[in-house]
Amino acid sequence: MSRQTTVLTKIQKFKPGTTLVMLLVVAIWILPTLGLFVTAFRSQSASVESGWWTAVFNPLGQDWTLGAFDSIFGQDWNLGAGFMSTVAISVPATILPITFAAFAAYGFTFLSFRGREFWFSIIIGLMVVPMQASIVAILKTFGAFDKWLMTIPGNEYGDFHILGEYPAAWIVHSAFAMPLAVYILRNYMMTLPVALIEAARIDGASHFQIFWRLIIPMSVPALASFAIFQFLWVWNDYFVAYLFSGKHPVMTYSILSMLGQHGEGWQVVMAGCLVSMLVPLAVFFSLQRYFVRGLTAGSVK
Amino acid sequence: MEAVLSWLAPFSDILTPLLAIIIGPLATFAFYIFLNWVVGLFPRKVSRVLRPYVFIGPVLLLIVSMLVLPTIQTVGYAFMNEDSTEWVGFRNFEKLFADPNFGSTVFNNFEWVLVVPAVTVALGIVVATLTDRLGPIRERVFKSIIFMPLAISFVAASSIWRLTYSWTGGGAEEVGMLNAIVTALGGEPVAWLQEETFTINNLLLMVVVIWANVGFAMTLLSAAIKAVPEETIEAAAIDGANGWQVFWRVILPQIRVTAVSVFITVTISTMKIFDVIWGMTGGNFHTNVLGVDFFLQYFVYNNTGKASAVVVILMLAIIPIMIYQVRTYRKQEELR
Fold first, then answer.
1. C-alpha span between B118 and B120 (Å, rounded)
2. Mind telling me how many Å the CA of A151 is from chain B's nearest CA?
3. Helix (H), strand (E) counts: chain A
4. What are the start-end ranges of the H helices in B185-303?
5. What is the pLDDT of residue B332?
6. Which segment of A10-19, A163-172, B262-271 scores lowest on mean pLDDT?
7. B24 in contact with A at a CB cutoff of 8 Å?
8. pLDDT for the residue numbered A58
9. How many CB atoms within 10 Å of residue A74?
10. 3-class SS of residue B87
11. Does B60 touch chain A (CB under 8 A)?
């Protein structure tokens, strides 16, 4: 084989055409997000007067500033508190549904009880019901519950209530996540060896022990992938947090208000978005493998 | 005690969330352990019957009280007046369908369901096929970038794309990418999100959702493509099939099941779409859809009756898919 043809095959193997097409696609995907990152570090006047790409093409002629971050963490927006509220909702709203779902998945996989198939069909069906279908009624129920709490002596002013506080969002998030969580975890548990559980039963282990000592450790991959899924969903959520834990404004709430006032320049909104995206992106890039595995486990068989 | 509390007060922004994080999960674990203990108190025969409910009971309670009953209640509200104090029969539905704006809302929903799932799956297949041919590093980098929007909130996505579509006008420099391209090509800048000709604003909103969803489709389809047995492709190549023929006749039929399931998942999420539209146009300029109209009816017009009627219409549209889901599940179970 001559030298020329080896170079040619090397180029062919590199697939320049396909690479070029993909670079174009990827550019469309990343440019809007790049705009966010650049704009967050520009001054107000710059972000109003010129496109963010002028700063990229002429980085030295640009006065980069952290002014937008001063503004969002300052008195105006207090995004630091928003960040903590988001954490306070996201962490329990991830752990709780997984705990609930793991127990239920164990029950649906390894225990027999009346109506098992019926209930599981209900869960499958609920996966597609939009959350709008239940929001109004849940809000009214929580409201009625708080009214009832006010009849308790010492709570006449409703100091003790649920609507607007963290637990309300935890409960609602758990409920909305439950059908998919149970479905994914049960599908995973179905693949575990039943013989192992039967052996443990014969050795006198209770279902509770088998669940904690055997099934949970073996289900870590499925639990992890669902946890990432749920965490990202809850962290990025706006509506449940706003409607049910409204007393603790989350980051998405603040950013949406910033967006409503972007006349002050895009840099404030973009800085807010940037802060809110840090945790999801870190989770996403460090645990991408689990995330992808979870996605594929959910639908591909 | 009070001294301690007053000393802690400035930190309450941090302490309350931390306490919440610790107490919430601990309470849940304690609840299960308690439940298990209570069931253990019963005689063996009874506890044996009750035991499964330690595991599934709390979830059944949660699902029935937070999903099933509220949904039924919502159907009830749809036949009641704005503050749910009186039965009004079909009046909410009659009012909705008499309103020309609602016609445009339903039309938009159709357009969304027609465009978004098809384009998402098609692009997902294209991207998955193309990246599959490249080296491992390029494949990983390209896929990560296309996948990334999945990790971003709709609020951030709305902000990003509102900047991209933004319009200054009046001869000033355009800071939005789309208008910058248009003016660079010699055109006039357009207020894209308000532009209703050919439902351009709707299509641009769909671009955002497609942008966010292609990564999901790509991931699943890519896994399916990698699972296609090499021999089938080689056999086709030996028989003289070219790249196109291999793709259409060999690969596509083998990833059909995955493509259909992705299509259905995206269809469901498109039918109830609301967040991106809410964040970008609020349903104005004839970009309203059922999912957004629900929020408008309930929170802006304070009309529980009409809001619930909108949801009922949405659910009626979703029911066929729901039946399909349960059926596929049943079929899968029989194969186990």
1. 5
2. 23
3. 17, 0
4. 200-226, 230-238, 243-245, 252-254, 256-271, 275-280, 290-295
5. 80
6. A10-19
7. yes
8. 86
9. 11
10. strand
11. yes
Q: What is this structure's pTM? A: 0.91
Query: With pLDDT > 90 as the criterion, what percentage of chain B qualifies?
Result: 65
Q: How far from chain centre, in Å, is Cα B128?
A: 21
Inspect the interface and report whether the beta carbons of B164 and A170 lie closer than 8 Å: no
Residue-wise pLDDT tens digits, B86-132: 999 999 999 999 999 999 999 999 999 999 999 999 999 999 999 98
Residue B317 in tokens: 């549209």
The tally of CA atoms less than 13 A away on the side-chain side of residue B291 is 22
Q: Is A238 helix (H, G, I), strand (E, B) or coil?
A: coil
Strand partners for B87: B80
Mean pLDDT calculated for residue range A87-95: 93
Query: In the structure, what pLDDT confidence band is assigned to residue B179 with cuts at 50, 70 and 90?
Result: very high
Cα B96 to Cα B274: distance, rounded to the nearest angstrom? 19
B80 beta partners: B87
Among B59, B125, B256, B269, the residue to mutate for chain A (most A Cβ within 10 A): B59
Segment (H or E) for B50: helix B44-63
What is the rounded CA–CA span in Å between residue B80 and residue A104? 36
Tokens of A194: 């039943």
Contacts of B161 in chain A (CB under 8 A): 32
Measured between beta carbons, which residues in chain A are less than 8 angstroms from residue B25?
92, 95-96, 99
Structure letter (DSSP) for residue B173 = P
Read off the amino acid at residue A147.
K
- For residue B242, the one-letter residue type is N
Among residues of chain A, what percentage have pLDDT more than 70? 96
Taking residue B247's Cβ as centre, other Cβ atoms within 10 Å add up to: 16
* Cβ–Cβ gap A87/B17 under 8 Å: yes
Q: Which helix (H) or strand (E) holds B77?
A: helix B69-77
**Listed residue (A269, A247, A248, A261) closest to A81, CA to CA:** A248
Which residues, other chains included, contact B202 with Cβ-Cβ below 8 Å and sequence gap of 6+? B108, B111, B112, B286, B287
Beta carbons of B55 and A141 less than 8 Å apart: no
A84 is written with which tokens?
A: 């903590």
Location of structure tokens 């209640």: B73
Question: Locate tokens 């967006």: which residue?
Answer: A259
B145: left (phi over 0), alpha (psi -120 to 50) or beta: alpha
* Measured distance CA(A242)–CA(A237) in Å, rounded: 9
pLDDT on residue B329: 82
- What token pair was written down for A78? 């207090």
Residue B194, C-beta contacts closer than 8 angstroms, at least 6 positions apart: B201, B284, B285
